[in-house]
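Tokens for Mitochondrial adenine nucleotide transporter ADNT1. Go.
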Amino acid sequence: MASEDVVGKSTGESAVNTIVNLAEEAKFAREGVKAPGHAILSICKSLVAGGVAGGVSRTAVAPLERLKILLQVQNPHNIQYNGTIQGLKFIWKSEGFRGLFKGNGTNCARIVPNSAVKFFSYEQASSGILWFYRQQSGNEDAQLTPVLRLGAGACAGIIAMSATYPMDMVRGRITVQSEKSPYQYRGMFHALGSVYRQEGFRALYKGWLPSVIGVVPYVGLNFAVYESLKDWLLKTNPYGIVKDSELSVVTRLACGAVAGTIGQTVAYPLDVIRRRMQMVGWKDAAPVVTGHGKIKAPLEYNGMVDAFRKTVHNEGFGALYKGLVPNSVKVVPSIAIAFVTYEVVKDVLGVEMRISD
């Protein structure tokens, strides 16, 4: 009898637990809330989609990314890169095919988590902002405006950039170093350790301030323009481009290209200053030789404002847009590929929530 009581008690407890679990799931369903396990899986899928989007888009334009940085930081007394085609040919001739992709491994190691955090942060920020906006306006059917999307994108950009900034800093140095550099960084982790030991922890965040200021219009405009343009196309359906309430991949690529072009043009001067500040303190970089054959030390900057002042004073206002052409050629496909890849991967993984949602 005792054993039967134990079995009966165990069976009863199991039945009660099952009923409780079913009740909880029913409650989640009634309230439109996902069960905790489902929510965690959805978050992981979203992060994976963002990471894949970043890695694919950045690798596709790696040669242009490297050339852009080389143009940004080259000394006016030692011009080696005069344009996109000439610059790519020079890299190919002096360093070979691998030279075109130098720093891409480090770049992907940074951009994959950066992109994952950025897309996920945008979804969370836009959801939070939309909820607050609906509460304040009293309109439960209100939708995000372009300005609110800009704010959500800015939040996402700041969070993602701050979380991965040290990797971006050393990636810039690895990209710039050449065979003539006395000291060679062997990889991202070696560079992180070397900068930390030789220059201190604060050196890992050199150029952080202009990055924060620049990421607001850059990432913010990327998301705001992309989403607003898609929303406008879906509502107006010009030339009948909308099929079954969906935009084609080509149309979404075009939306991403427009968003990327606008964002990077507005924020580009801050990106130039950020790169130059990242090079400050790197005493083992390749020596700079002037036109008179004399070795000239690179300029030192005391801060963002000082970097702006010295750059404009010594090289003119146009120096703030050095590398803009290869960057424009890079950004158009890069941003477009990132957005579309993100949405496609989420579709493949079966994530219900899209960026626009």
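The longest strand covers residues 288-289.
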